[in-house]
Design goal:
Blueprint lengths: L1 E5 L4 E14 L2 E2 L2 E18 L6 E19 L6 E18 L12 E12 L2 E10 L15 E10 L2
Antiparallel strand pairs: 1-2, 1-9, 2-4, 3-4, 4-5, 5-6, 6-7, 7-8, 8-9
């Protein structure tokens, strides 16, 4: 799950629940690197400053994160672990589902940085992270500037 907010001027964009699915691969024991690839859908509710119509907007694409992490408790072989991580990501937009936002109006790729923590229990993991976009969401900010996105990610899955 992800919750994406937008920080621009001239509009109010409130994050709604989105989703992602994909895989990542951790290399290392106490310190590790973890590249990944995910298909992600992000959505928000958009309202203009003059209380114009409320519109739901979503955009989707490929997110490619690269994390550097540290196993605070345990390591990659432990049945229980607590991890901290951070890194950079790229998001390549593949489409939109919106009446007012076209794919060509969204910056692609979008670059970001993130930080988070995770818990490993046997073969199950749960990660929580927060991402700050370094790229403006829109390519043309003449009329409305949606600004940068900020997102909270909650990810669960299996580790092998």
């Amino acid at each position: 799950m992800n919750f994406t907010n937008v920080t621009g001027d001239g509009a109010d964009a409130t994050g709604q629940t989105g989703w992602q699915v994909g895989a990542s691969f951790a290399f290392g024991n106490k310190f590790y690197t973890e590249p990944g690839i995910f298909y992600q859908n992000s959505s928000f509710e958009y309202t203009t400053v003059d209380s114009g119509p409320v519109t739901d907007a979503s955009y989707h694409g490929i997110r490619i994160p690269l994390a550097l992490g540290f196993n605070i408790l345990g390591n990659s072989e432990s049945s229980f672990g607590l991890r901290a991580f951070g890194g950079v990501s790229s998001f390549i937009v593949t489409g939109t589902s919106s009446d007012f936002l076209d794919k060509d109006e969204i910056s692609s790729p979008q670059w970001g940085v993130f930080a988070g923590a995770g818990v490993d229990i046997s073969i199950i993991y749960i990660d929580a992270s927060y991402q700050w976009s370094a790229t403006n969401l829109q390519t043309d900010v003449t009329n409305i500037d949606l600004g940068n996105s900020r997102g909270f990610f909650l990810t669960a899955g299996l580790r092998f």
